[in-house]
Amino acid sequence: MSQDGNELSRRRFLTAAGTAAATAGLAGCSGGGGEDTTTDSGETTGEGETDQTQTETEDDGSTSVLRYGRGSHSPTLDFQNSTSGEVAKVTEQIYDTLINFEPGQSTLTQGLATEYSLEGQSASITLREGVMFHNGEEFTAEDFVATYRRFVDSDYEYYAGDDYVSAYGPFTLGSWIDEIQVDGDYSMTIQLTQSYAPFLRNLAMFAASVHSLAAIEEYGTELSSNPVGTGPFQLSNLDDANELIRLEANSEYWGDGPNVDEVVFVTIGQNSTRAQSLASGELDIIDGLGAQSSVQVENASNANLVRTEGINIGYMAFNMASREEFRDRRVRQAVSHAINTEAIVNEIYSGFATQASQPLPPNVLGHNDDIDPYPYDPEEAQRLLEEAGYGDGFSFELATFQNPRGYNPSPIQTAETVASNLGDVGIEVDINQQSFGPFLEYTAQGRHDACFLGWYTDNADPDNFMYVLLHPQVEESELTEGQDWVSFDAEGYNTSNRSAWANREYMDLVEQGQSTYDEAERESLYNEANQIAHDEAPWVYLDYADELRGVSNRVSGFQIAAISGPYLNLVSLN
């Protein structure tokens, strides 16, 4: 499963003209949306920003402008350069994938591919003809090959670089593709390294979108601010200073819509201010809602609160590589018992979420219905700490983001609650709050002791949680006998595993789950793996959150989705 050079040098890309040797490399989506949070610049958002937002996004009445409000800005517009859901919200409008999800469902449907199949270790893909990129180039199989190689092949002339590409590379495509046979402009056969059940679903993930070969050659890593896709919208203006992104309709779009002339993504860090902007008509759709702001939307006369079951997990990861205390399962279990996750869900998140018990959400294959959340039990926590030799307590740093995420809409209040709960059993918590971009970098480098994070599904497959978030993805040689953790510095380490957990029994079950196409067998394997993950407690399992959006009454056609999206090409304004 690892990305070492010896194995990857065998990967090949076959074209009608011949074969080019290649290697694949690099290593895991954090995204989503408290009430008293700040913007990613670190400045508190107030009424002055709202007024500026209105000025920046107003139009003269001759064009229809959809205004989408969120809690954080996108630091890049290249889907290969980030794991953030805030990036995906925008790039999903600009780029297309070979395969799509039906809006609001987990069913696969046509995208840039009109036919697709997976049998054994071979995937056959027939591409849509006549699709044009925003730069006027026609989409062909060569664009997909170039996109793939830019993401994972360090020998490729246009490889984006280890410091640029995100951890999505290996687990989306790089670890699984052995070779690509291009048969003309519109047909490909992809040979896999093994039988891999989630592969077609991976092709529908935002990180598997398709760049233009010509744009790759022209812009290189500057695609982060010069995106060129085939999607329903194209970039009109990127205003990082004011955290605004303006897109304009692609009149040549091959699919449904778009039904508005422009989309503007507006950043307002404070939930209540964002909800107020929706109620006053300054915004049309908002996300990242917490308890107070949801009530604001429900009470607005010109907007509605739209809600659906999410496919996500919010958690607190223990960094076993950083702290010796966390290498003891009893300590991790003690902390899990000491934190009142039921109160966090019911009081801070106001019932817009349910307690989590395991890595997989309830609506994903392999969720173990027999596992209950850790009960709030300070006495049991104290007993476990004493048994582990930490009866007098210890201290650690809890890193948290400031801005709201759907799986943790009030991160600062949640962190304060955790600190208070753990203080009751003698554990001192130092809260380190950061804006989201620096926070992701900080924790990806393993500099945290513990951290809040969460995950929205990319493809509704259990592998997207179990492998992506808790498998180290390193060679056996990087693992130490009798040790269930690994260093962040290990060759090929999967930095999405913020806990540095490396439990061999769990890893084996997850790998088996990847390689079988029998659904019943997969379910059984993941049931067992979830039990191990619960018992070993590499995370404090916080919540499974509902998806919440505030939608103006003047909006029609909006489809709330737990996977992919938002589908703004389907939206029209009354």
Helix content: 25-40%
SS-based class = alpha+beta
CATH-wise, what's the superfamily of the largest domain?
Answer: Periplasmic binding protein-like II
Cα-atom Rg, whole angstroms?
23 Å
The figure for the number of domains is 2
CATH topology annotation of the largest domain = D-Maltodextrin-Binding Protein, domain 2
Question: Within the largest sheet, what's the order of strands?
Answer: 10-11-12-3-13-21-14
Largest sheet: 7 strands, mixed
Number of helices, counting only DSSP H or I runs of 4 residues or more = 17
Query: What is the CATH architecture assignment of the largest domain?
Result: 3-Layer(aba) Sandwich
Distance N terminus to C terminus? 51 Å
Count of DSSP E strands?
A: 23
Average pLDDT, rounded to a whole number, is 89
Query: What does the oligomeric state look like here?
Result: single chain
Under CATH at level 1, the class of the largest domain stands as Alpha Beta
Ranges where pLDDT stays below 50 over 5 or more residues in a row are 1-58
The backbone outline, from C-alpha atoms, is: globular
User: Into which percentage range does the β-strand content fall?
Assistant: 15-25%
